Amino acid sequence: MLKLGSKIRTLRVARGYTQEELADRCDLSRSFISQLENDQVSPSIDTLERILRVLGSDLKTFFSNDKRQEKIVFKVKDRVPMYLDELGIKGFILMDNIEDKSIDPKLIEMEPGAETEEEEPHEGDEFGFVISGKLELILDGKKYKVNEGDCFYYCADRKHKIRNPYKEKVKFIWIDIE
């Protein structure tokens, strides 16, 4: 049996997913992901392709023994959209297909009245810088006003969300740090 497990675990952790989150995104069970990462089962090609797609990779890259060329510049055209416009939030992952990164920067635009879903506590830290407008950061129910030019930083070990209760669009950089 080919030892895929540790490589899949590395990709999953690099994306910041728990086994359950990866399983949900791939329509698989958490126990299957666990067994896969421990090399107790082998996935079908279709299942492996689905897992790799969620993890921002593909079969060619995954099985390549070549050292990947270090990517320095990330072009606007390479950004990956994150949110639906109907929610009043537009987001873009700024650096994609980087398996060993410890940060995940995003460019976010929120319309007036828009807000993210409340995130449950998780590992890592989060940093933000408001480019234009202002926003409200809510950590465990406590509200913080963040104005244009301000930044925020917190340990993600508490419930958190961001909202725009103001009358103008806000644009900010949001970085998840592992």
UniProtKB/TrEMBL annotation:
It comes from Thermosipho melanesiensis (strain DSM 12029 / CIP 104789 / BI429). SUPFAM superfamilies: lambda repressor-like DNA-binding domains (SSF47413), RmlC-like cupins (SSF51182). This is Cupin 2, conserved barrel domain protein. Transmembrane segments: none annotated. One of its GO terms (molecular function) is DNA-binding transcription factor activity. Keywords: DNA-binding. GO terms for cellular component: cytosol. It comes from the Bacteria.
